[in-house]
Design a protein that fits this description.
Distance between the termini: 102 Å
Strand order of the largest sheet: 7-8-9
Shape: globular
Oligomer: single chain
Number of strands: 11
Radius of gyration: 26 Å
Helix content: 40-55%
Largest sheet: 3 strands, mixed
């Protein structure tokens, strides 16, 4: 009997080893690589091994468009119905991505016998991911660079904040903002315009190589304008060269830009109940499954699950569809302007003109530029979509109560911004501040903090249940204190 048990144990260990080896092989083994991609890998594994190893572990290295097209509707990660024939049956590799659409690519250059593009743009990614690229193209993220540069109000704010200051005759003098200050701050998230300046020679272990000379590169901002004219950077969320859906789904990715004091989404999430569960259980979750099953693959929402992921029940009934326009489940915009307001109809928010002719969705006293904003019907639809996500875990009364509190917080935080704005308007009328640039004096900067930092914090805290950010951490305490300081400063200046 003992001998039989030993034999069975050995067979079990052998089977476990065999299955483990097979599983390992399944992870590393992939479809055929094209000859061109194989040549890229053979060279780059010596010169940029990190890139090669990252790609080898990616889904792109282990699948083909043909395999992707064969998936069921819910399982598909590819949205284009027609894929070029030469790409169908090979892995999505270096050559397949870096040689697409060469004509508009100003960054295209001859590289050891191949014509390659330095940057893979959304226009290239849409060869396989057309729906995602189209959705993204009209989002605020895709137009994030233009929102700063083509909106005179925001552009003035950026130039004032990032300009170099000198003191002359006891006065602060603003010099022109340096490109470096802008690119390393606001435009690091919003994106830059990648300009082709010609060719340059770089020295490598293979000798001197001619490469494109690109201005404002590197940059992975969400509204980056690429050398082929397309807008956006898929790699802002799906990093090169793994293009991982797991990384895109994790809150740390959003934390690259959505941080306090102005966009405190990640900070609020971390201290919320949802963030607590995520931090405790994240290692147990299935981050790569498509479709993503609520309760089975993950047990608490993340930024992605609320704002853009395809979610299904454990029985694979669709709850909400995938979208790469991150506003499509948002009915109200709680940041980015003086007051909260309905979401803009278009991502090109710089085209908005309020009653006073400014590129803002409201006037200084809160009157909406309604023709540029979604109507009540669309607001209701989007709020319902978000409620669907909440109701996968919470009862109707819980969800209803949460949204009612949030809507009330929006109204009250806007009133605190209006009070600060009324003080600023009074100071301008009294000649206690210069209205020509509304962002450069101490009183004006306190007004900016009221809506850009403190009101935003209160709204985010209410939306995502992070109470300290609604109270003492950039919240109501700061709103009240800042308002009093504005009042006292005006009184002091007026004496």
């Amino acid at each position: 009997m003992k001998r039989i048990l030993v034999v069975l144990l050995c067979l079990g260990l052998l089977l476990t080893y065999s299955l483990g080896t097979r599983a390992k092989e399944d992870v590393t083994a992939g479809p055929n690589y094209s000859e061109e991609t194989q040549e890229c890998l053979d060279c780059h594994k010596s010169y940029t091994p990190g890139i090669v190893e990252d790609w080898l572990k990616s889904r792109h290295a282990r699948t083909t468009p043909e395999m992707g097209l064969g998936k069921s509707a819910l399982e598909k990660r590819i949205s284009s119905d027609t894929i070029p024939q030469n790409l169908l049956s090979v892995a999505v590799g270096c050559y397949e991505c870096h040689t697409l659409n060469p004509s508009p690519h100003q960054d295209n250059f001859e590289h050891f016998g191949y014509q390659v593009n330095v940057i893979v743009s959304p226009n290239d990614c849409k060869t396989c991911h057309s729906a995602e690229a189209e959705q993204y193209s009209d989002s605020k993220k895709a137009h994030a660079l233009d929102i700063l540069q083509k909106n005179p109000v925001y552009n003035s704010l950026v130039e004032t904040i990032t300009s170099l200051k000198e003191v002359n005759d006891n006065k602060i003098v603003h010099l022109k903002a340096s490109d470096n200050a802008k690119w390393e701050s606001c435009y690091a998230c919003h994106g830059t315009r990648i300009n082709f300046r010609g060719s340059k020679q770089v020295s490598t272990t293979l000798g001197d190589i001619d490469v494109p000379d690109l201005d404002n590169w590197p940059n992975q901002g969400v509204g980056r304008v690429n050398p082929d004219g397309s807008q956006g950077a898929c790699t802002a969320c799906h990093p090169r060269h793994s293009f991982s859906i797991e990384i895109a789904r994790k809150p740390h990715t959003c934390a690259q830009c959505h941080l306090e004091p102005d966009v405190p989404g990640y900070n609020v999430y971390k201290e919320s109940k949802h963030g607590n569960i995520f931090d405790s259980k994240k290692q147990e979750w299935n981050w790569g499954n498509v479709p993503w099953k609520v309760g089975k693959d993950f047990q608490a929402p993340t930024c992605a699950s609320c704002h853009n992921s395809l979610l299904v029940t454990p029985d694979e009934e669709e709850i909400v569809s995938r979208t790469h326009d991150f506003s499509k489940r948002l009915w109200v915009r709680i940041l980015g302007a003086i007051y909260s307001h309905p979401q803009p109809k278009s991502g090109k928010t710089y085209e908005i003109k309020n009653k006073d002719g400014l590129s803002l969705p409201t006037t200084f006293t809160g009157e909406l530029a309604s023709e540029y904003l979604i109507d009540e019907k669309e607001q209701t639809f989007r709020q319902t979509e978000m409620k669907k996500v909440c109701q996968t875990c919470h009862g109707t009364s819980w969800v209803g109560g949460h949204f009612a509190k949030f809507n009330n917080t929006i109204v009250e935080s806007d009133k605190m911004v209006l009070a600060a704005t009324q003080l600023l308007l009074e100071a301008w009328n009294m000649g206690l501040a210069d209205q020509s640039n509304p962002f450069d004096e101490a009183l004006e900067q306190k007004w900016i903090a009221q809506w850009l930092f403190y009101a935003n914090s209160v709204r985010y805290a209410s939306a995502m249940s992070g109470p300290d950010y609604a109270a003492f951490k950039l919240g109501w305490w700061e709103l009240s204190k800042n308002l009093q300081e504005m009042h006292d400063l005006i009184e002091l200046k007026g004496k």
